[in-house]
Amino acid sequence: MNYLKILAFACLSLLVFSCKDDEQQRLAETKRAEQVNDSILKVISRNWHFDVPQPTAKAAQQLAGWNEWEQFNNELQQKPTSTLEAFRRKANVLVTKAEVLKNNIPAFLNKPQVRARLDVVITNIQMIYTYMNIETIPDKKIISLIGSITRELTATQNQVDEIIRISEIPKEEGEQEMLRAMDTTRLANPDAMNTPPQAQPLTPTPQRPPGHGAFMKQRNTP
Questions:
Q1: What does the DSSP 8-state code read for residue 133?
Q2: pTM for the complete prediction?
Q3: Through-space distance between the first and last CA atoms of the chain, rounded to whole angstroms
Q4: Cβ proximity of 155 and 124 under 8 Å
Q5: pLDDT digits (tens, 9 = 90+) for 56-78
Q6: Cα gap 126→134, rounded to integer Å
Q7: How many whole angstroms from its chain centre is CA 186?
Q8: Contact, 121 vs 149, CB < 8 A?
């Protein structure tokens, strides 16, 4: 009986020590991960710069009424404090601001090329948020995404300048009338602009029998 008690006590002690070892190992791994992330965070903090140039005067005028664009860019310029939680909160806020960018694009700028660039910006912001919330943060990927976002935002402003430039090109009077007529037709019946014209059936030309001309000439000769 005493033997069984000793055996049970030994097993229980072994289990307790094993649990303590596992807990200590887990705490040690967590501490190492925190130390690595602290070092990585310093690198990210040094590179957290979205250096988008100021838009031209004409582009700024077109962007002025786009509140979502202004709020997103203002949020980008506010650098978080150098703590992991601060950067995670910033990434979360940026995702929220980015995902509404396409909701109220001004009609003049609502072009496929502008929307495509915004899609890239939104995707990259979401990826930053994902990387900031994993156990070991991949600093090189986040720095690369920061550069990509900066380039896409700059390219979007350049695209606005291009849209303005094209709109200012003088058009011939006949071309303007034709474009207005096409727009009117498209608005009245948008499906018609995408429907290919149907081929008209050909009316067969009646065939004259051989010698018909000579016969008629002979018949009319007195």
A1: T
A2: 0.65
A3: 149
A4: no
A5: 999 999 999 899 999 999 999 99
A6: 13
A7: 28
A8: yes
